[in-house]
Amino acid sequence: MALFYVHQQGERSFCDVYAMRFEISLMICLWLVCFDSGTMAARSPPALSLIEDKWADLSLADEECGGLTAPDAQVVDEGTSQWELVGRFLTNRAIKFEHMQLVMASVWRPVMGMHLDLLDKNLFLFHFPHPKDMQRVLDDGPWSYENNLLVCAQIKPGMRPDEVDLNNIPFWVQVHGLPAVYASQDFITKIGDHVGAFMSIDPNNFGGSWRSYYRIRIMLDVNLSLKRRMKLLRRDVTSQWITFRYERLNIFCFCCGILGHTEKFCKKVYEEGIESEAFPFGAWMKVGPRRQV
Description:
The longest helix is centred in the first third of the chain and has 24 residues, at 14-37. β4 (143-145) and β5 (148-154) form a beta hairpin. The protein is extended, with a radius of gyration of 31 Å. It is α+β, with helices and mostly antiparallel strands. α1 packs antiparallel against α2 (45-65). The strands form 2 sheets. Strands 6, 7, 8, 9, 10 and 11 form a 6-stranded mixed beta sheet that branches. The protein folds into 3 domains: 14-65, no CATH class; 78-163, Alpha-Beta Plaits; 168-287, no CATH class. Helix content is 30%, strand content 23%.
């Protein structure tokens, strides 16, 4: 019996809810009249079941239409929260927390000290008493522990550590094979956006008449394959390859080119049966000095 209310998918308006309340009230009244008259309908299980279903539907409707208005945002003390980093390592193996804490502190050597908290199995909170120590960690990366790259980011005021996106990592990339006649800052910036997300150019790129390669700082998505090379198309229809080498690059797969695992544990190798001779990536993409801890 649907006298006044038509059930619809999605959100309901207040009018819909009121109509539904009226319909249920009317159904109960009719049921009570039947009960007083002694008819069989009062003892009918389907009638009771229909009313119960309507009440359940009404409860869901109240839930959809209800809620609380958010209060004014609290003022967050930026004096401490902005000096915290949250990070994870690109590995499925367990991280030895105490040992990692000692090793990273010895490598970073923060002037004002630091301490770590273990938030989850592979989620860590790095506290710095001074912002310069934290910024140096961000600027001088990427970092690694036992050859496992650390993906870390600053916690913005008002955010929780588990809300921070930990899927991007900065790298210095060497661009090899780019003719000097095309090595303008604008074109090198475009190359950076081809490899990942351009961040900056090494100022020493243009300090001289000749360079064997050019360095660019880029942000890489750890879920995507590394770029090996890029085809440079000249105006005379000829072309040549420009290759990329990554500084401080540690574990990555020579088959799929993704950071954090080797071809030994690559699903693509298992599913497609690719032999090592056919791997498109290789150790030639790594370049030192790499900081291994």
